[in-house]
């Protein structure tokens, strides 16, 4: 095997391990990760894992980055396919709920779970999670601003307030789904944002009808 | 010491231990509790703790009940002092945010943290947490219904939808506060609900002005 081949295999192992670790962390918590237990669960040698991450914290930071990649692929990029304006903001909410409904992760929303888990734990993990939340709310705020600038929403609509409401409804769905069921929870979350967007839209007919 | 005296002292110890355990659980998670570590942290004998709770799960269930008592005292009862109607629903949101701002618990919101922690962990703890969430949303829905019945809100306002929006904004504040700061976070959460309530109130002037 050439050196390139080994590198490629290393990258593949890395991605496969991060996929499974992300699933575990979404259910058991990010702090519950341990390289020793992970090696056992995944049937890998501990030294093999250590070749990729030298500490639990390195692995945690890598899992957060991996979750961000998943969110980009499954939520953000599909949302960006919608036309710029209020429909794109709507698509971000809709795709996020579809992510929860499809049970992409056993724990529902890795990010929401981790934010709450690390509410009172300062350090590099908390910092990277905080950066992620700040980046995500900035993204939603940008979509809301574009919707105002496009004339889709009433002048005077505050983009930050609209992003705040949108993300509140999304996070709440992640929390409520295991108790109430994902279908009912996500249906109500869609209705709630759509009712608000219709009320402030200059032309409500460009927004979808929910079946 | 009489038997009544020992019983009283036992109850006092129990309450004091639950107070401190709730603080720990709000920061480190409910699953992170261990009777052994707790005994060490609180400087108590393990047998003393075992006299009150025979297992980690018994202690976890007792902590959830204790958190419910705290929420009753600090949020629900003060909110019920407000006049029935839209002002009482507003007071429930306002008192909850005041609870976060006062940093009553180092982890912010014990309930929100625990709901997310137990998203993927079925069992008696998850069940009791689910009952708590169901009870709380039923309480908010009742306040919203009373506000409609009192004529404070436009006829046709859906009480469950309004409760859903109210709780979404509250949970989001608990999540965002450690990243953005409690003051800014709670100010935005108050503005968001108040703007919505004003828009659907028959007489917006009965709602408070935010300073």
Helix content of chain A: over 70%
Distance between the termini of chain A: 55 Å
CATH class of chain A: Mainly Alpha
Structural class given helices, strands, pairing of chain A? mainly alpha
Count of alpha and pi helical runs of chain A: 9
Q: What report would you give on this structure?
A:
The structure is a homodimer of 211-residue chains. Chain A has helices at 3-28, 35-42, 46-52, 56-80, 86-101, 110-117, 124-149, 159-180, 182-200. The first copy, chain A, is mainly alpha-helical. Chain A has a single domain, classed as Tetracycline Repressor, domain 2 (Orthogonal Bundle), CATH 1.10.357.10. Chains A and B meet through helix 1, helix 6, helix 7, helix 8 and helix 9 of A and helix 1, helix 6, helix 7, helix 8 and helix 9 of B.
How are the SSEs ordered, and which strands pair?
The structure is a homodimer of 211-residue chains.
Chain A: H1 3-28, H2 35-42, H3 46-52, H4 56-80, H5 86-101, H6 110-117, H7 124-149, H8 159-180, H9 182-200
Helix pairs in contact in A: 1-4, 1-6, 2-3, 4-5, 4-7, 5-7, 5-8, 5-9, 7-8, 8-9
Question: What does this entry show, briefly?
Answer:
The structure is a homodimer of 211-residue chains. With 211 residues, chain A is mainly alpha-helical.
Keywords:
211 residues, 9 helices, homodimer, Tetracycline Repressor, domain 2, mainly alpha
């Amino acid at each position: 095997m050439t050196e390139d081949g080994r590198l490629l295999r290393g990258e593949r192992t890395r991605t496969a391990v991060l996929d499974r670790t992300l699933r575990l962390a979404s259910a058991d918590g990010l702090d519950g990760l341990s390289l020793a237990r992970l090696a056992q669960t995944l049937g890998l040698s501990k030294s093999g894992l250590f070749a990729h991450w030298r500490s639990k914290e390195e692995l945690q930071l890598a899992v957060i980055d991996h979750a961000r990649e998943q969110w980009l692929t499954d939520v953000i990029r599909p949302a960006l396919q919608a036309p710029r304006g209020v429909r794109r903001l709507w698509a971000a909410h809709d795709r996020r709920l579809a992510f929860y409904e499809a049970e992409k992760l056993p724990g529902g929303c890795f990010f929401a779970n981790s934010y709450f888990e690390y509410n009172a734990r300062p350090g590099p993990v908390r910092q990277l999670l905080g950066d992620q939340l700040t980046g995500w709310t900035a993204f939603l705020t940008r979509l809301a601003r574009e919707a105002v600038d496009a004339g889709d929403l009433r002048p005077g609509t505050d983009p930050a307030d609209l992003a705040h409401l949108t993300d509140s409804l999304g996070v709440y769905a992640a929390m409520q789904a295991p108790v109430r069921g994902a279908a009912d929870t996500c249906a109500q979350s869609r209705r709630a944002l759509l009712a608000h967007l219709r009320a402030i839209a200059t032309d409500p007919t460009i927004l979808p009808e929910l079946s």
